[in-house]
Design brief:
The protein is an alpha+beta fold and 419 residues long. It is 11% helix and 27% strand.
Length: 419
């Protein structure tokens, strides 16, 4: 069902049971549970549940792959995501400011600027205009560094020329963030070009760095800096989905010349390792991670201190602790009930609304094969924190679907005959 139609299964949480693989002979059962909290001073208080979002099995979703999916079954680490805007203090317009988030010892800062135009002097060199004042600036990837310079030509000799790749890619596209602004390859003046509003304060753009000149040197440009979900079709996340087909148009180096490697966001030799391994579960696990640079975290257990600065309209800083209780998840298969390990998948904070959500998952092997679409009844349930069971809802069987289709056809024939 669509997200707007989904209702949480309980007032205190939402949950879903998923069998995997999604088709054919299932081998494992997964439980996904989402809790919602209100930030109240230093604490987080349980509030009415929000629904799980972006079910990849929902064929009505368009597009199917969206940033911020609660239905990924396996994550090796937890994504910490902060969504919202930067607010000028006391509502007094500013031209620039900093926003920051910290969880435990991990701190990430963001330089936030008002709208800035790129001008061109008499010598044809770019110049960055002063920022315009602002009171609120959305912290989204559309406002971060990136974009597409369509002035970069496609060579007739390029194997991707006249291919389907041109519909979703371009040699002048900034692979890390095609949705952003400020990315310029061609040195010729480009009118009405905007600077990004969001930058890494440790790696700010300068007029001398604006023009890339050679599209193969895209990797030397600043990383897009944000706290939001990372889109599935941005590099390097896309690389883990399909190593052979979803790399950058001009693949970058695999050593410390690549900023992601130098800063510890990618392993040395990442592409070689992926190609050797193929599209196995480990590479897909990395694709499932949707946190931004520096905010994919291992070892979170609850009670970690959180600080969010500059993202509430009236409070300069929010400081609180994450909920400390790991949920108890039990899986019952044909009457055998087992407690399984819960893993934290994501923490999503909306500081302006003082709320956050946490998604946990657990799984275990199935003792025998169950086939959704063949078996009408599949006896699997989950228990969350000792609550009443949530039963697996098997989809209609092929036999039932055929019978329904046949009944509809007969009904249509009768109506046509009556007409």
């Amino acid at each position: 069902m669509a997200d707007e139609e989904r209702k949480p299964v309980r007032d205190a949480y939402d949950a879903e049971i998923v069998l995997h693989p999604f088709r054919g002979l299932t081998k494992r059962v997964f439980a996904i549970v989402k809790f919602s909290y209100k930030i109240a001073g230093k604490n987080c208080e349980l509030m009415k549940a929000e629904p799980l979002l972006n079910n990849i099995l929902d064929q009505s979703l368009d597009p199917r792959l969206r940033p911020g999916c609660d239905f990924w079954l396996m994550k090796r680490s937890a994504d910490f995501v902060v969504r919202g805007s930067a607010y000028a203090r006391e509502g007094k317009p500013v031209r620039e400011m900093q926003a920051a988030v910290q969880i435990g010892s991990r701190l990430k800062r963001l330089a936030v600027f008002g709208n800035r135009r790129i001008g061109w002097n008499a010598a044809g060199r770019p110049a960055i205009a002063a920022p315009e004042p602002f009171e609120e600036m959305p912290l989204i990837y559309e406002n971060a560094y990136g974009g597409i310079d369509f002035r970069v030509p496609v060579s007739d000799d390029d194997p991707q020329y006249q291919s389907a790749a041109l519909e979703v890619d371009w040699p002048g596209l900034y692979p890390r963030n095609p949705f952003g602004k400020g990315y310029l390859v061609d040195p010729a003046p480009a009118e009405n070009t905007e600077m990004p509003n969001l930058e890494d304060p440790s790696d700010l753009l300068t007029a001398d760095r604006l023009i890339v000149n050679d599209p193969e040197r895209w990797y030397l440009q600043p990383l897009p800096w944000c706290f939001d979900w990372v889109h599935p079709f941005t590099w390097p996340r896309s690389l883990f989905f399909a190593p052979e087909y979803a790399d950058a148009w001009f693949p970058g180096p695999e050593d410390e010349r690549m900023p992601e490697v130098k800063r510890g966001f990618l392993a040395h030799g990442y592409r070689t390792h992926l190609q050797a391994r193929g599209e196995d579960e480990q590479s897909l696990d990395a694709f499932f991670q949707e946190g931004s640079y520096g905010l994919v975290l291992s070892g979170l257990k609850g009670n970690e201190p959180v600080m969010i600065h500059g993202m509430h309209p009236s409070e300069p800083t929010l400081a609180f602790e994450l909920p400390g209780a790991t949920p108890s998840i039990e899986i019952d298969i044909e009457g055998k009930r087992t407690r399984v390990l819960s893993r934290l998948h994501s923490i999503v904070c909306h500081p302006a609304e003082k709320r956050l959500t946490m998604v946990w998952a657990a799984n275990c092997d199935l003792p025998r094969v169950f086939m959704p679409g063949i078996h009408k009844h599949i006896p699997i349930s989950i228990f969350v924190n000792g609550d009443a069971p949530i039963h697996y809802q098997a989809p209609p069987t092929v036999k039932e679907l055929v019978a329904t289709a046949e009944a509809n056809r007969e009904k249509k024939d009768v109506q046509s005959g009556s007409g």
